[in-house]
Amino acid sequence: MDLGTGLRRALKKLTGAALVDERVVRETVKEIQRVLIMGDMNVALVSELSKRIEARALDEKALKGVDSREHVVKVVYEELAAMLGEKHEPKIAKQKIMLLGLFGSGKTTTAGKLAHFFKKKGLSVAMICCDVARPAAYEQLQQVAERAGAHFYGKKGEIDASKIAREALAQAKEDVLILDSAGRSAFDDELSHELKQINAEFKPDEKLLVLNADIGQVAKKQADEFNKAVGLTGVIITKMDGSGKGGGALSAVAASGTKVSFIGTGEKQEDLELFDAKKFVGRLLGFPDLEALIEKVNEVSAESKIDEKALLEDKFTIRTFYEQLKAAKKMGPLKGVFQMLGAPDIPKDMVEQSEEKLKAYEVMINSMTPAEREDVALLKKNRSRLERIARGSGRKPEDVRDLLSQFEKVQKMMGQFKHNRGFRRQMEKMMKGGFPGMPGAGN
Fold first, then answer.
1. Taking the CB of residue 262, how many other CB atoms lie within 10 A of it?
2. C-alpha–C-alpha distance, residues 210 and 233, integer Å
3. pTM to 2 decimals?
4. Please, is 439 exposed, middle or buried when counting C-beta atoms within 10 Å of its C-beta (0-12, 13-18, 19+)?
5. Going along 22-159, which residue ranges are E strands?
6. Do the beta carbons of residue 429 and residue 442 sit within 8 Å?
7. Chain CA centroid to CA 264, Å
8. 120-134, 160-174, 348-362, 380-394: which has the minimum mean pLDDT?
9. CA 5/CA 348 separation, integer angstroms
10. 415 CB contacts (<8 Å, ≥6 apart)?
11. Residue 329: is it exposed, middle or buried by C-beta count within 10 angstroms (0-12/13-18/19+)?
């Protein structure tokens, strides 16, 4: 059971209680305490957190319009977010970034994600290979740089990392320079000496330690060691999408006095998020993150070049529906989309079924003629056309009818959005987080 699932189950006890009294609050706090410790969080840290939650939940007066259940949830949300740190606001300007970390932390992959992040902000990026210890590090970073559209600097065969940094600085003209340093299986004097030399030569604006979420509480020890050597400005935690120890790593970094800058949520270059403790805790507790969802939708829409003119005019066709389906696939796994919507506990089989359905729709639309994609009326009462599309896509005629039914529902919703101002205002309010009684709503 992951941390989010455990916390949501603990808070469900509040909704099931007839009266939220002192006994219910103490039982809920005890369950939260158990979940956090099982999530690999430091016992002393959890103990202090539990005391603060219990004291505030019992002694603090609830805000006007907030009932006792919502008050307890609000306190849990605020205390967890406060424990994990603040929102990271990166500098979108010329800068030098040095990445540090041990073997297996995901440093090189993260370098590509950072390059992708700054490229999207309109900055030119270069990557510098100063990993002279790991075999094939030069080739791997070069490939990552090519995928990210970044320039690459390195010197194959050179064993002096500080010399590579010095020569790259003399050549590079890009806005953002990302230096990938060497790692070791464990922090030692040799690594410390090498990092200090690179640091003195490169003079980075940001020194970011890359940690794997799987290490849990060990994150504090690593953060302390690297911080003592070169003075960290932040931490990036990778593999936050599948680790049960992610909460432990986050809390351990916070306990070290170092801030979390980014979290890695997948293998793709776009799977890097600015760390925002409030949003992170909100997702754990099942609150909607519509701001992130709308940002993702806008980003995908721009990349997909959806015909906005056709959507705004009365020309919503199966062709434009098809473009939306392709855009939806670019948003990543549906599980993540459901999390942004505040529905993280959708059954796995239902999510997988939905993803399979999207694939099936795409195949069926590909089996249609251009005329059929533009005019759905050609399909509605023509059985032979439906059967032809079904055969061409390896589906049944009823599957094609299901596709047409879904298309009509979306078409109707688009019509409401375009012509009904009240409906449009309601949607816009929802997208801005206008959920009454929701902790942090609209923030």
1. 23
2. 12
3. 0.69
4. buried
5. 95-100, 125-130, 151-153
6. no
7. 7
8. 348-362
9. 13
10. 314, 316
11. middle
- Secondary element (H or E) of residue 412: helix 397-419
Nearest CA-CA partner of 106 in 141, 146, 75, 78: 141
User: Tens digit of pLDDT for each residue in 24-55?
Assistant: 999 999 999 999 998 888 888 899 999 999 99
Residue type, 356: E
Backbone φ, ψ for residue 24 (5° rounding): -65, -40
> Which structure tokens are listed for 145?
């740089």
Q: Please, how many CA atoms are within 13 Å of residue 16, restricted to the half-sphere of its CB? A: 8
Nearest to 168 by CA among 191, 145, 193: 145
Indicate whether 426 pLDDT > 60.
no
Give the mean pLDDT of the chain.
82
Lateral strand order in the sheet of 125-130: 151-153, 125-130, 176-181, 95-100, 206-212, 234-238, 260-264, 272-274
In sequence order, which ranges of 289-347 are alpha helices (DSSP H)?
290-304, 308-312, 318-330, 334-340
pLDDT-derived band at 11 (thresholds 50, 70, 90) equals: confident
Which whole number is the average pLDDT over 250-273?
89
